[in-house]
Amino acid sequence: MDEMFVEFFDAIDDLSDNEMEGTSGMGLGLVIPKLKTDGHLGAREISAHYNVPLPALQQLKVDFPECPPAELARFLARKSVSGDAQKAGKLIASYLEWRKGIAKWPQPPSDLPNPFRFNGFARDGSRLLLLLPCTIDIGFKPELYCQTLVRNLDVEVERADTLRFTVLLDCRPHLALGYDAKPVWRLWSHISAMAKIFQSYFPERLQRFVIYPAGDLEMGAFRMFKGLLSTETVKRVRLLYSKLGYAAAAPPPELLEILDVAEIRRENKVFFTGLEPDV
User: Fold this and answer.
1) What pTM was estimated for this model as a whole?
2) Contact partners, residue 173, CB within 8 Å, separation at least 6
3) pLDDT category, 35, cuts 50, 70, 90?
4) Count of other CB atoms within 10 angstroms of residue 7
5) Residue 24 confidence (pLDDT)
6) Distance in angstroms (rounded) separating the CA atoms of residues 111 and 108
7) Distance CA 161, CA 235 (A)
8) How far is 167 from 92, CA to CA, in rounded Å?
C-alpha cells in the first residue's frame, strides 16, 4: 500500500522549484496566468515567463525550429533540466519522435469510457480538468486511457500557449449515472500511468491536483505518507475532506475556493450537483 501511494503522487512530481515559490501548504498557490497573446510572443517574453535562460531557448529554437518557444521553454523549465539546453534537447527529441507515433495509434474501442471532462478556468487562471475514476473500466489497459488523454489535450490545448491545469479528481461513484463505486486508491496503475504521461510529454502544465471528497481513510493515509513525498508534491496536492468520504452526495464546499460554478460546462454540471454557487 505504501509503495502504491508514493508511486501515485510521484507521478505528478516533476514541476520546477521556482514554479512553487509563494505557494501555501494547502495547495492554493497562484500560477503565472496564461498570456493573452501566447502564439505571438517571442523568445525573450517566453524565457521571462518560464524563468529559463534566453540563450538556451534561442539555441533550442535553432535545433528544433518546428517547436513553438513556449513548448521549448517548458522542457527547459523541468526540474531535471534546470535550464540546460543539452538536457532539454534530448527530451525534446524524444518527445517529437513520440508525437510522430500519435497518428499511428489505433482508434479507441467504441465502449472505452472517457474519464476526462474539460471545463473553464479556475480562480487562479489555470484550466479545469475533471477526472472521474468511477468511469474507468480496468478491463481496458492503462495505455488506452493514456492515449485518450493525449488526444484530448492535443485538441483542447495549443502547443504554443502557456496554459496550466488544475486537475479535479472526484472520488465519488455517481451511481445515478451508472458508474459504480471505485475508490481512487484501487485504480493505481491507470491513474498513475495517465499522470506520468501528462508530466512526461506535457511538462509545466500541471498547477495542482485536487482530490475530493476525501474521507478519514484517505486523509489519514495522506498524513501518514506525505513525509515520503517531496515538498513540491505536498504543496501541489490538496485533499478536500468530507466525513462521508466518496459516499458524499455533493462536492465539499471548499471546492468553491478553487472554482466558480459558472466555469463548469453544461454537460458536466451533473458532477457538481449540490455545490452551491457564490452569492
Assistant:
1) 0.82
2) 134, 179, 180, 181, 182, 246
3) very low
4) 14
5) 28
6) 8
7) 24
8) 24
Distance of alpha carbon 7 from alpha carbon 183, whole angstroms:
17
- Residue 63 CA to residue 267 CA, distance in Å, equals 43
Give how far the C-alpha of residue 62 lies from the chain's centroid of Cα atoms, to the nearest Å. 30
- pLDDT digits 0-9 by tens, 73-131: 999 999 889 999 999 999 999 999 999 999 899 999 999 999 999 999 999 999 999 99
pLDDT digits (tens, 9 = 90+) for 209-266: 999 998 888 788 778 777 766 677 677 889 999 999 889 999 999 999 999 999 999 9
> What is the CATH code of the structural domain delimited by 2-27+108-272?
3.40.525
Which residues are CB-contacts of 39 (< 8 A; sequence separation ≥ 6)?
Answer: 68, 158, 160, 161
Q: In 3D, which of 137, 140, 80, 86 has the Cα closest to residue 108? A: 140
CA–CA gap between residue 142 and residue 183 (Å, rounded): 17
Q: Are 167 and 191 in contact (CB under 8 A)?
A: no
Contact (Cβ atoms closer than 8 angstroms) between residue 133 and residue 171: yes
* Three state DSSP letters for 39-106: HHCCHHHHHHHHCCCHHHHHHHHHHCCCCCHHHHHHHHCCCCCCCCHHHHHHHHHHHHHHHHCHHHCC
Length of the chain: 279
Strand ranges, E, within the chain: 116-121, 127-131, 165-170, 206-214, 237-241
All structural domains of the chain with their residue ranges: 2-27+108-272
C-alpha span between 12 and 194 (Å, rounded): 10
What percent of the chain has pLDDT above 90?
58
Residue 51 has pLDDT above 70, yes or no: yes
